[in-house]
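Subgroup meeting minutes
Present: P.N., E.W., G.H.
Scribe: E.W.

1. P.N. recapped why we're keeping a running log of single-chain structure predictions: easier to compare across weeks, and new members can see raw inputs and outputs side by side.
2. G.H. added today's entry (165 aa).
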Amino acid sequence: MSRILVDQVRSNSASSDAITLDGSGNATCAGNLTVSGTTKAGTITDTSGNNSSTTEQIFQGRARVWWNYNQDGSPAAIRDSYRVSSITDNATGKYTVNFQDTLTDPCGAVSASFNANAFDTNYSDVATPYISNTACQVLTPNMEGVPYGGLHDCDYGYGVIFSDD
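Output recorded in log:
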């Protein structure tokens, strides 16, 4: 069997190396890289090295929008989110999550809300989401106590939206 051992690959007409290999077998490509045929990868990472996904995660789908919302705060506020431009507190037990981008085919909306004290007779294990391409309206009904089914503000509101884009 034959082997070619190199540390750098450069075109005859180029002034710098096109591909550099380090001692661990990692390749660095200066400029654009075009690959024809099948490309196999285990994990794909951004250039900063901070954000990565496995090919399986990408294949199975990633959340397009998610949020963690303090619905009962003064004022109500977003704790953390991804691709959410704002959240509008519409009324007691009603809020709208406005998306940063328009989703082409939003599906798989999941939302839940609860209070820090689950035994205070005002909690929601389920929140009802109504989704469009640009927003999701959420209702948080009382699942225990009086009035059962009446809307109320929760300490924690969460949601996840999936989409084909």
